[in-house]
Design goal:
Elements (H helix, E strand, L loop, with lengths): L2 H7 L37 H14 L3 E5 L2 H12 L5 E5 L4 H13 L3 E5 L4 H7 L4 E7 L11 H10 L6 E5 L4 H4 L2 H4 L3 E5 L13 E5 L2 H14 L5 H12 L1 H20 L4 E5 L9 H7 L6 E6 L3 H10 L4 E2 L9 E3 L11 H7 L5 E5 L5 H15 L1
Helix pairs in contact: 1-2, 2-10, 3-4, 3-9, 5-6, 13-15
This protein binds pyridoxal-5'-phosphate.
The site of pyridoxal-5'-phosphate has 15 residues, from helix 3.
Length: about 375
């Protein structure tokens, strides 16, 4: 089946013949024998959540999926479930702020060493591998700089090194399963904040992990059970509904983002426009190799100071100033103060996150309306 069909039909499980999976709110399930069998208790698993997991696995072309109460639930369960004191994790330097904070506070406290590298250059990853390296953790495109990391090159670095055999974990939230297939390139685990494109309607906080290895899946299932990070059935129903339109939405997000990136590139108030689909993007060739959809995120620098940024935000009528991304509505944010507000100035400076950098999540509204809104706001910023 093609992705559009899979998104709608995979995982459907309704004994009454309904065309959607029913929401089963039971916390516990009748047991007819002494050995706990099937569904037992919804912190372990639940029929509605399990149905969504089949849908998610099919979408990512993976054998297994596990659904979590948030993207951070998926991330923390994966890292804590698979690493132990003394292990090292190599991470790309431009990670989601919550993941960075989790590593810098909780993982470090438990004796896990975090090694940060610019993974755009795979040699940096190669040089960082030692006999304690147990995991390489990546985002691509990164947030907010939309850097593209070559999944082929990183997997090759791992495969040919003779020092250790780290797991490769990829946060695929920005690209979605339709935009990029890390398991195909050799990653072991794909993670998502379902809160973003996969649910797509800004009304759920949820996460998922997709993978092919049964041993890893069993470990993560047990860790999820004891950390209490399983998804609840209501959210599973909402995410399942959102997935049905994901392929259609992603086409609209990409088309809109492409037009807006081109518009901003030609606008005198904008500079450093970053979008993986633009020829000017520093890693456009890698993006073309590994992405089937360049996504709906665009980052640019507004010419002017923070007062100009404020005037720009104040003049917007359709774009909502807010964190998060991937919903049907267009959102806009200033990473320096908002999503990356808890990083130090020095860290942001090193990465190149400035006070006038703007990140946009292009929704699926009419593109002419979006362009008009941006035109007015850019004029107001002058
Ligand atoms: N990964 C990425 C790339 C994100 O942008 C986010 C949230 O913004 C997360 C993970 C965390 O997901 P959640 O907010 O669902 O816990």
């Amino acid at each position: 089946m093609k992705e559009e069909t899979t998104a709608i039909h995979a995982g459907l499980d309704n004994p009454n013949g309904g065309v959607t999976t029913p929401v089963d709110l039971s916390s516990t399930f009748r047991q007819d024998s002494l050995a706990l069998d099937g569904f037992a208790y919804s912190r372990l698993s639940n029929p509605t959540v399990a149905s969504l997991e089949k849908q998610l696995a099919a979408l990512e072309d993976a054998t297994y999926a596990l659904a979590f109460s948030s993207g951070m639930g998926a991330i923390s369960t994966t890292i804590l479930g698979l690493l132990e004191s003394g292990d090292e994790i190599i991470v790309s330097d431009d990670l989601y702020g919550g993941t960075q904070k989790f590593l810098d506070t909780i993982a470090i406290k438990l004796g896990i060493t975090v090694v940060r590298v610019d993974a755009v250059h795979s040699v940096n990853v190669a040089n960082a591998i030692n006999d304690k390296t147990k995991m390489i953790y990546l985002e691509t495109p990164t947030n907010p700089l939309l850097k593209i990391v070559s999944l082929h090159d990183i997997c090759l670095v791992r495969d040919i090194n003779l020092i250790s055999n780290p797991l490769i974990v990829v946060d695929n939230t920005f690209a979605t399963p339709l935009g990029q297939d890390p398991l195909f390139w050799g990653a072991d685990i794909v993670l998502h904040s379902l809160t973003k494109y996969i649910n797509g309607h800004s009304d759920v906080i949820a996460g998922a992990v997709m993978l092919n290895d049964k041993g890893l899946k069993d470990t993560l299932f047990a860790t999820r059970t004891y950390m209490g990070t399983c998804m609840n059935p209501f959210d599973a129903m909402l995410v399942s509904r959102g997935i049905k339109t994901l392929p259609a939405r992603m086409n609209l997000h990409e088309a809109g983002a492409n037009e807006i990136a081109i518009f901003l590139e030609g606008h005198p108030m904008a500079e450093n426009v970053l979008y993986p689909g633009l020829r000017s993007h520093p890693q456009h060739n890698i993006a073309t190799q590994q992405m089937d959809n360049y996504g709906g995120m665009v980052t640019f620098t507004l010419k002017g100071d923070t007062d100009a940024v404020q005037r720009f935000l104040d003049a917007l009528k359709i774009f909502t100033p807010a964190v998060s991304l991937g919903g049907v509505e267009s959102l806009i944010e200033v990473p320096y103060f908002m999503t990356h507000g808890n990083m130090s100035h020095e860290e942001k400076d090193t990465l190149g996150i400035t006070e006038n950098m703007i990140r946009i999540s292009i929704g699926i509204e009419n593109i002419d309306d979006l362009l008009k809104d941006l035109t007015t706001a850019l004029q107001a910023a002058k």
